[in-house]
Design brief:
The protein is 9% helix and 37% strand. The protein has helices spanning 208-212, 252-261, 316-323, 338-349; strands spanning 20-24, 28-33, 43-50, 53-59, 64-71, 80-83, 90-95, 106-114, 124-134, 139-146, 149-152, 159-163, 171-174, 195-200, 219-223, 239-245, 267-275, 294-300, 310-311, 330-335, 357-364, 377-384, 389-396. The strands form four sheets. The protein has an eight-stranded mixed sheet with strand order 19-18-17-16-20-23-22-21, sandwiched between helices. A six-stranded antiparallel sheet has the order 13-12-15-9-10-14. A five-stranded antiparallel sheet has the order 8-5-4-3-11, with no helix packed on it. Strand 16 (239-245), helix 2 and strand 17 form a beta-alpha-beta unit. It starts with 19 loop residues before the first strand and ends in a 14-residue tail after the last strand.
Length: 410
């Protein structure tokens, strides 16, 4: 393997000088972003202009850096990427059209940056359906792929989805989900340049009925990533509590995937999913009890008589039993319908007077998948008491969307 370019060092505050590092084999060329200590890349967008020109967009917390690569020779599309979920470093591997070593990469052009990332313009691209796998009669896993574009959506952020029909302007936010959390669960036809969406079909849904009915090779439009959630904010915590109401589970999946890859996470504790009935929860064994760091609890409010697990509605007493008292090394993520969120927030904040709430930042939803018209806000609240951060709470206000098992009712 050849390593032909050494890039200049970059100061922590000088994002515009970040370049794409590269190395090669006889058959491939591998690109990666040279990370800096205090500013890690959150996501990427990669666009094929021609087979010898690539446009990289590197997404940071508050800025997007653009680089256009004019390559020495042509490559094949699409690339394959490998993402280290602990360091967030990504490597893109492109096959060369001609099997020979390159004497140099070509040249790079820094084409500017987008500073106001929270208000960035939505750019829609056409995606083709690779697979539309029903998990039940209500929930589908939709796998899509763009022709000349690849994006790695930052953890906790979302994309806007709309129909391919230009006469219809119905759009909804959806959080991309990991295709699988265990190798045995890899969906059919999935490749790393795909995006996966979990779709709940609603009888009167204006978009969900269209999405769940899509056939292979049909098209739809997805936007670039939106939102402002930064998972790295929570890397200091070694214990993670999660509370999910209905399909509030969906935004949690990429957080679970990242946490399972981090060596510093000692426990994913009491992942609790609140549902009405057993047939309404989906949590594969691959992310369940087989993981030594993880405890999963299902709580049903309308169980059958054969249900032997926990039952009841979300309440302060129940949450106190599940989450317990504050810990300096613990954080709590909650996601669910509006009433669920109000009760969860009331419980967690009840131990602290108002002046102990350090910040309260309201941003556009970090990613939900709904088919009703509502105001979508995420409520990111940090509680501090005598300096150490006691709890972090990520709250997403959304209607109750129910997951369904492959096995149906029971």
């Amino acid at each position: 393997m050849f390593q032909l370019i050494a890039l200049e060092s970059t100061s922590d505050g000088d994002l515009s000088s970040i370049k794409m590092d590269w190395r090669q084999t006889i058959d491939t060329v591998i690109f990666s972003c040279k990370s800096i200590y205090s500013r890690r890349c959150l996501g990427y967008e990669l666009t094929l202009i021609t087979n010898s020109r690539l446009l990289f967009k590197i997404i940071f917390e508050d800025e997007i850096i653009k680089h256009e690569l004019h390559l020495r020779s042509e490559i094949e599309w699409p690339p394959i990427y490998n993402r280290n979920l602990e360091t967030l470093k990504v490597e893109f591997t492109c096959a060369k059209r001609e099997r020979r070593p390159w004497m140099n990469l070509g040249h790079q052009i820094t084409s500017g940056s987008d500073v106001n990332i929270s208000g960035r313009l939505k750019i829609y691209r056409e995606y083709r359906v690779i697979a539309n796998e029903p998990l039940s009669n209500q929930v589908h896993l939709l796998i899509v792929q763009a022709k000349d574009h690849l994006q790695i959506v930052p953890i906790g952020r979302h994309v806007m989805v709309k129909e391919a029909d230009i006469n219809k302007n119905i759009q909804r936010p959806y959080t991309p989900v990991p295709p699988y959390l265990h190798d045995d669960d890899k969906p059919p036809n999935y490749t790393p340049n795909c995006l996966c969406l979990m779709i709940k079909k609603y009888p009167n849904g204006l978009l969900s009925r269209f999405l769940t009915a899509l056939k292979v090779d049909q098209t739809l439009y997805l936007s670039n990533s939106m939102g402002s959630f930064v998972m790295g904010t929570y890397d200091r915590y070694s214990v993670i509590h999660m509370l999910a109401g209905g399909t509030g589970l969906t935004p949690m999946l990429s957080i679970i995937e990242r946490a399972m890859a981090r060596r510093s996470v000692s426990e994913i504790n009491k992942f609790t999913q609140f549902q009405h009935k057993r047939r309404e929860y989906v949590l594969r064994e691959a992310i369940g009890e087989s993981q030594w760091r993880e405890v999963i609890i299902h709580i049903l409010s309308q169980p059958k008589s054969t249900w032997t697990g926990k039952r009841g509605m979300v309440s302060e007493g129940l949450l106190n039993n599940l989450v317990g008292k504050s810990q300096p090394d613990a954080c709590v993520f909650t996601c669910g319908p509006r009433n669920f969120m109000q009760i969860a927030r009331t419980h967690i904040s009840s131990e602290y007077p108002e002046y102990h709430i350090l910040t309260a930042v309201y941003n556009e939803c970090c990613g939900i998948h709904v088919d009703t018209v509502q105001t979508h806000m995420s409520d990111l609240i940090r509680f501090e008491k005598m300096n150490p951060v006691v709890f972090n709470v990520l709250q997403l206000a959304l209607p109750c969307n129910n997951w369904v098992t492959k096995d149906g009712d029971s």
